[in-house]
Amino acid sequence: MQDLLIVGAGPIGIELAAALTRSGLSVGHVEAGALAQTVVDYPKRTRYFSSPDRIAIAGVPLVTFNNEKALREEYLAYLRGVVTRYDLPIAYGVRVEAIRPVPEADGGGFRVETSAGVREAKRVVLAIGDMHGFRRIGCPGEDLPHVSHRLDEPHLHFRRRLLIVGGKNSAAEAALRCHHAGAEVTLSYRQAAFDEDAIKYWVLPELKALIRHRKIHFLPNTEVASLHEGHAVLRSNVQDQQTRVRADSVLLLTGYVQDKTLFETAGVRLEGENHAPALDKDTMETNVPGLYVAGTAAAGTQNAFQLFIENCHRHVEKIVRHVTGEPVAEGVVNQAAQTYGLAES
């Protein structure tokens, strides 16, 4: 039985593993996909909102070209470097399917059922993030071949009529990138105007200018009624009216939901609108003794984002201190939250 098993190899899971390398504990680490799979799934050449010093981990500086905000590709290369530097033994492609607490009478700890067999650990840390599934809108035609819930390559939409549904950063950024790649973009949003706090500050002015000059067609106060081959039907949410929009392809960029399976199988209580795991914010231990949560997983399904990489570094310090009884070695955990006065929620 291992002393601790980390589930998830995103930035915070990696930082926790690095912080535990000299703890003397036997630590296992599994990841369902590739290293930082959530980052892998970002659209190509996505640029981070946060500055490099805020998303650096494990005491390793993140250096970018011209000291600009990191691109997806730069950050992935950086994370590979951190894992290599600490020689972290992460098992990739191992999906955890259930976590079963073992009664104290039978030895305690956890029985962790994975796609590669059963593991046993005294403690488990879930650093699984919160972007596991697409937030579906539930309209007819949502599963048609020309409809997608994520942007991959803007080039694919060159000289095609593209309908983008959504009004936060993913939709706004996709609208700009696909427009510049030669797509004829229509943007449908259920609100009357964009939430400026939800869109990167360098994206919104250009988007507004393109809408104002009718280079991007903006349909506020609209929702998708149905999707069809070659067109979509939108309905107004302020008046009894429907609009038919021609579309060769559709991007439903309406957000993500968290998979609660591991919390539920372990007996973790879920609370609030986000169904976030119940935990002690001083230790990150859930209501199930020995089961911890790190990173954005602690927020549940985020409707309004409150947890990001930069204000989750503290989770590493709290877990290490509670598990080992000792503080993290100086310089191993990013201090961005303290430096910038960032709240955890």
From TrEMBL:
The entry's keywords: Flavoprotein, Oxidoreductase
Gene3D superfamilies: FAD/NAD(P)-binding domain
MF terms in GO: oxidoreductase activity
Highest taxon in the source lineage: Bacteria
Pfam family, one: Pyr_redox_3
Coiled-coil annotated residue ranges, if any: none
Protein name according to UniProt: Putative oxidoreductase
Native source species: Phycisphaera mikurensis (strain NBRC 102666 / KCTC 22515 / FYK2301M01)
